[in-house]
Amino acid sequence: MGKLIVMDHPLIQHKLTILRKKETSSKEFREVVSEISSYLGYEATKDLELEDINIETPLGKTVGKKISGKKIGIVPILRAGLGMVDGVVSVVPGARVGHIGMYRDPETLKPVTYYCKLPKDLKERNIILLDPMLATGGSLIEAISELKAQGARNIRSLNILAAPEGIKAVQEAHPDVDIYVAAVDKCLNEHGYIIPGLGDAGDRLFGTK
Ligand code: PRP
Ligand code: URA
């Protein structure tokens, strides 16, 4: 079973409240999504492999550490996942960035994929999938299946808010994927929105309705 890591750090919980408040502007919403994403990115890269490297400080020789092993690929699920890219790239600036375009049909709540452009060497990379909202889990399950179909083997998901139903669905469909979240909310409403949630993340990020 994949791990669920809930980052209930005070700074994250404080910022999450800003995202939830309906009066928060798109500008502030974007800034805070980016900040929370950098914290999630920090946590999700905790197990990166290191190797020793001989270096010289101004005062002498020593052995330092350097990230080694697999490279990283960041994959936002469009649109809302785009809001998380800058924050995660600030932590791993050398990462390649792929994109999966997907929207949820409002009637069926099933994901519809309209775009997919991924780095070619997915097998050689640790993949960090980004989407602020994990609701029914349909979009994330589909995105992970597409990544695996194209060769990805090591995938983790960063989501700001998640519903228990979505977490369960993803863990059942892809038990090898760890999920990093800022909070787990109560439930979904009849339209598949997370309650209490923060509303429609894409609309709030980009000022659309
Ligand atoms: C939202 C969100 C996820 C999806 C989550 O996207 O960003 O991708 O819904 O729902 P699920 O877990 O039930 O699949 P939306 O369809 O609103 O598209 P957008 O990002 O283009 O706004
Ligand atoms: N997508 C969103 O943007 N918000 C939700 O609450 C659920 C899906």
What is the structural class?
A: alpha/beta
- Taking all Cα atoms into account, the compactness measure Rg is 18 Å
CATH topology: Rossmann fold
How much strand content do the residues show?
A: 25-35%
Number of separate domains: 1
Question: Quick one: how many beta strands?
Answer: 13
Q: Unreliable runs, pLDDT <50, ≥5 residues?
A: none
Helix content: 25-40%
What does the secondary structure layout of this molecule look like, with pairings?
Layout lengths: L3 E3 L3 H11 L5 H19 L5 E8 L2 E8 L3 E8 L3 H8 L6 E2 L1 E6 L6 E7 L7 E6 L2 E2 L3 H12 L4 E9 L1 H10 L4 E7 L2 E2 L5 E2 L5 H6 L3
Parallel strand pairs: 1-11, 4-5, 4-6, 4-8, 8-10, 9-10, 10-11
Antiparallel strand pairs: 2-3, 6-7, 12-13
This protein binds 1-O-pyrophosphono-5-O-phosphono-alpha-D-ribofuranose and uracil.
